[in-house]
Structure prediction request, 401 residues.
Amino acid sequence: MLDLDICIVGAGSAGLTLALLLADSPLKIAVLDKDPAPELVAPSLKRVSALNQASKRLLSQLGVWQDLTSAAPYTDMKVWEADSFGRIEFSALEQGCDELGWIVDNEQLRSVLYSKLKSKTNVSCLFQSSILNISNSEQQNLLTLQEQSPILCKLLVAADGANSFVRQQLQMPIAFWDYQHQALVAQIRTTEAHQRCARQVFLPTGPLALLPLADPHLVSIVWSTSPEQAAELQAMPAEQFNKALTAASNSVLGLLQLESILNSYPLKMRYASEWVLNKTVLVADAAHTIHPLAGQGMNLGLMDVAALAELISQQISHQKPINEERMLRSYERWRKAEAQTLIAAMEAFKQGFGRQNPLLKLVRGVGMSLTDKLPFVKQKIMAAALGDSGDLPAIARPGVK
Prediction:
């Protein structure tokens, strides 16, 4: 039997970041995942995430950021509504910074995190390990594994994604609703240079984001639309899809050309009503998933694990149990508040732009145009997007180098 202080289930970016945050501590930690270990290969850019300043500060402190060759900065953002005069623009210059954010390859982030963990003697990574059963009590957790020795741990952290096996096994309740949207994701070659500008247009069927990559003529798209239109777009020949995408983007980057396979993912909001059960705690997508229209999902998850690591470190320094319920509830209250705020904001955006009533469209246009002319309001919006506001973990706060 493997006797641990902490077992982290899920070797995604959140789980690996938590392990790295607690590496070099006196704790005995294992990261468990049913899939093979990530490999250090050239970025494929199949799935990317937008990371903000707070996430960069966190990853820089861990020595990870410097190795992310795929991190493509963007210095401007342009948001507008199709067939409307409403638009708003943001720039790094206005915010007094060099970049507004970065587009990062998800798999490269995982592989770099894992490579940093390999040298940490207090962390074991157990890949291709499947859990058969979890026994959760008020004292500890017992994990029965397929063809491997059982694991006994003081604290079990579920970082195993939106369809968390841990959450389901322990029957931790979750609220969810289907956005009735599919996200179409692909790399797109552009005629015009993107000029490090992230663009998003609100179409009648949903938002289309054009995220700039390191190549000045390459963007990653996230096109959120109805399942019916998503199926129609995926069935199109490449040339026909290129025309449809170019028209949807209003040709802001000239003619667009599909550069990769067009993948589709269903969009659902999930929110666990309880993030703590005895000595088990949920983090990142296991606790919440949100609509990708603001690109904040990865940032929210990274701040979850940074907050949990901060509280665990405080327990160690005060010689208190790392699975103390009061501490776990403190984490839950802290991060629930942040998640609830973002979920509510994303739903308001989606509902607000989803209605095509001409009067509402006029109101939206006026509102966006007014906001664009109010520096104080724009700064408040961007402070949240940059990760410079809210109750941030210490390692991610402004001023940390």
Observations:
- The mean pLDDT is 89.
- The chain is about 35% helix and 30% strand.
- The two ends are 41 Å apart (CA to CA).
- The longest strand covers residues 174-190.
